[in-house]
Design goal:
CATH class of the largest domain: Alpha Beta
Largest sheet: 6 strands, mixed
Structural class: alpha/beta
Number of domains: 2
Helix content: 25-40%
CATH architecture of the largest domain: 2-Layer Sandwich
Strand content: 15-25%
Oligomer: single chain
Length: about 240
């Protein structure tokens, strides 16, 4: 299974008002193993970054002036992501910008070029309701060091997201054995896992003293409700 962690940096927050992508970072994971086959491009957005965005990513207009325009890297990006499952933190933001860039080039939307798009922000909110679920917060929660992250960077954030995702989903694959294979199955690392016979089920019966104590408790409950308690009904 090929998965790609993707992040972008942009000139601002709204592609509909003309903000553009200035950096794309992708990290490849195959069968839960990082491959090192990453994708990273700085992009000349042909406009200045908003002050707030510049404070986040630090990529100045001067630095980006000699970088390729999005149209010059689009084909390479599309080839890299084609058919893969894409994992993004707050996916609507990055997908919205990519769709705007692809629309300028009259090519299919982002989701039409890839497999499933997985939003780790949605996953994190389901796993940790009511808590902070930014990438920094998840790094702290799962023990992923981000001490070297002074500014946001697309490739760095994609690398951090990959580590966070592996921590968030650790152990899932251990439950996915094909039980129809009598000779065993393989785990995520390709190692053979042989089926293990289940131990006999132990049945512990209540002793006579425990049964008398239970009956006394039921009588006490009956007395409290002046009738037959729900526990008595359930045990009938």
């Amino acid at each position: 299974m090929r998965q790609i962690f993707l992040d972008t940096e942009t000139t601002g927050l709204n592609p509909r008002s003309g903000d553009r992508i200035i950096e794309i970072g992708c990290v490849e994971l195959v069968n839960r193993q990082l491959t090192g086959n990453n994708f990273h491009k700085y992009v000349n957005p042909e406009r200045d970054s908003e002050e707030g965005a510049l404070a986040v990513h630090g990529l100045t207009t001067e630095f980006l002036a000699d970088k390729p325009k999005f149209g010059e890297v689009a084909d390479e990006l599309r080839t890299y992501i084609a058919g893969a499952d894409i994992i993004i933190h707050n996916a609507p933001f990055d997908v919205g910008f990519l769709d705007a860039e692809f629309a300028r080039l009259n090519v299919p939307r982002f989701k039409d070029q890839v497999g499933e798009v997985i939003d780790t922000l949605v996953q994190a909110k389901e796993m940790h309701p009511g808590k902070r679920n930014s990438l920094d917060a998840l790094c702290d929660r799962y023990g992923v060091s981000n001490a070297h992250r002074a500014l946001h960077g697309a490739l760095l954030d994609a690398e951090l997201l990959a580590e966070v995702y592996l921590a968030m989903t650790r152990g899932q694959n251990s439950l996915s054995m094909d039980m129809g294979d009598a000779d065993g199955a393989t785990n995520a690392g390709g190692e053979l896992v042989l089926p293990v016979a289940l131990a006999p089920v132990r049945i512990l019966c209540a002793s006579a003293a425990e049964l008398l104590a239970h009956e006394a408790m039921l009588k006490s409950l009956d007395k409290e409700v002046r009738g037959k308690s729900i526990w008595r009904t359930a045990s009938d």
